[in-house]
Every structure is written in C-alpha cells, then in structure tokens.
Amino acid sequence: MKPTTYHYFKILLFSLLLSLGTSSCSKDNDSMPKTSFETVITVSGERLWQATGMEIDNASNSCFIVTRETDPGSGQSTERITKIDLVNKTGITTYSDVQDFISKNVHVLNNELAIIGGTIVTYYNSANLELLQSFNHGLELSRFGSDLHNNTLFIWGGDLNEVNSDKIYQLNQSTNLFEVYGQLSEPRTWAHGEIINNTLYVFGGQEEFENTPIKNTILIYDLNTQTETKIMLPYSFFRTFTAKLGSTIYVAGHVVNGENTTTILGKYDTETNAFTEIDFELPNGGNIHQLAVDNEYLYALAGEEELFADFQVTKMPLP
Fold it and tell me: What is the band of 9 on the pLDDT scale with cuts at 50, 70, 90?
C-alpha cells in the first residue's frame, strides 16, 4: 500500500515522542572514507574475546594485553600479560599466580601496570612485568568499565551480583578498597567509557549480564556536581569498547542482528556531542574486542569468538 500523508505524520510523531527528554548525538557517516586496519602482531590465546584488557604506553611505545588464561606449565588459571613492542612488532608474555575472574582492565600509572580484575587489583613493573603487589578490592565484578583519573582508578557497572551496577567507585589508596563515589541513573554492564574534563561518559551496554534491553544512550556524569545527562546514540550497542585522545572518544560497539554480531566504529566529540561513524575493514575479519590509542594510531584487538584463537593487534592512522 502506498504511504499517505497520514502515515508519514504518524512516523514523525512517533520519532518526536522517542526524542522527548533525551538529547541525541548528531551522526555523520558520509564524511569519512573506508579505512583498513593493518596487523601489527598476532597474539594467540584463550578466550581473548571475553573482556580482555588492552592499553598503550606512549613512553615505551608498548601495547599491553591482559587476560585470564591457563598457564601451560602449571595448568592453573592465571593472569597473563603480553607486552608488545610497537616499533619492532615483537612481544613477550608472562604469567603470574594471580587467580581471578576473567574480566581485566589495564591502565599505565607511574611506570606501573594497574590491572583491575573481578575481585583483585594487581600492579606490575611495566618494563619487566615483575609482579609488585596484589590485593582484594572488595567487590565482585564482571564486564565493568574503568578509567584512570587524576592518578586514581575509577570503575563503574558490571556488578556480578546485579545489585550495584549503577554505582561509580574510586579506589581508596589507603585501604586498597573501592568506595562509592557516585551513582548512575541506571545500571550498566558491558559498557566501557572514559573520563574527560571531570566528566564520565558511559556508552551503551545493558543493565545486567544478559537478557536485558540493549542501550542506545550515553550516560554523561559530572564528577564535580554528581549530576547526569543522557544523550542518544545512533545505534543500540550491547557491549562497547572505548579509547580517548584529547576531547575525542573512539567507540567500538557490538550490534546484534539476528544470530550475527557486527562492530560499529565511531568517534564521539565531547565538545559538540557529534558521533561520526568510521567505515573500516579488519585484515582477517571478526569483530573488535578492545580499543587503545596513541598520538598517531587507533589500535583494535580483533578476532573471532572462539575458545582458542589467533587475534590481531591492528592499527589505523587516527581518523
């Protein structure tokens, strides 16, 4: 049946109702040509698609990949750290005896690696990967977000008990425990984000670990005033990965289409609220499962969701 003016009016009215009370990102996906990621190095491992941590250290031109994996020598579940020389494209891997949940987030702080796991925080020497200390941080987490702000670790979401996924925590460096700093308007899991200019930006995700509605919003939380605003994204992302440079946040979001999952890549301007989609290709297919950035390149950890797989650390010039 041919659409009538009345049909168009109903569609317009429905769109307006959806937008009431929530701002939207402006979307621009025509201004950026397709860009190919190139492989820096291939890393093999166990469950690399399940909440692996990745970070760039500009001082040493290194990339760190952190995951939980079975030590081939002892057979025990351990924390595995791979340090990649981005100049020579070589890597070294070490295993520690830290036993924790599978989710890992990693940050570089004062020549040390700070790794946040589901129950434990560990610190390693970033040069030789020597284990310096580890402690129980007081929570049980999975698929949470984190950032380093003013030399303090912040985390949000991903409460394994599905009770405190709306909480924002900061690490008390005297007690080594995460303490509540603020509260989001709704729970978030699988939702990464960044802190820029004392403001936390949390992208997509869902309210619980599984079987809850997928989010198409950014929660923007002012750490000074402890107030929040919300902006709509052009897509619903059931899990997200982020990296920041200046006022820009790069976002890789997984979109579900039936039984298939695809990655949407974009950059979000925190000054204009514009989300620009980046048309890209991966060298060996699969999806993006982590992001990192330096002053020249955007890095993506990419591969297929398999128990044991070869993943590529890839890079493209900053779009």
Answer: very low
Residue 17 lies inside a defined structural domain of this protein? no
**pLDDT value of position 3:** 41
Beta-carbon count within 10 A of 124 CB: 25
Q: How far apart are CA 91 and CA 191, in angstroms?
A: 29
Instruction: Tokens 């941590």: give the residue.
Output: 53
Q: What is the mean pLDDT of residues 87-107?
A: 93
Task: Quote the domain boundaries for residue 196.
Answer: 23-317
Residue 182 sits in a domain whose CATH number is 2.120.10.80
Which pTM does this prediction carry?
0.89
Judge whether 270 lies within some domain: yes
> Look-up: residue for tokens 């949940």?
101
Please tell me the total count of domains within the chain: 1
Q: Cα separation of 309 and 301, whole Å?
A: 12
| Residue 14 belongs to some domain of the structure | no
160-187 burial, b if ≥16 CB within 10 A, otherwise e?
A: beeebbbbbbbbeeeeeebeebbebebb
At 142-162, the pLDDT tens digits run 999 999 999 999 999 999 899
223 three-state secondary structure: coil
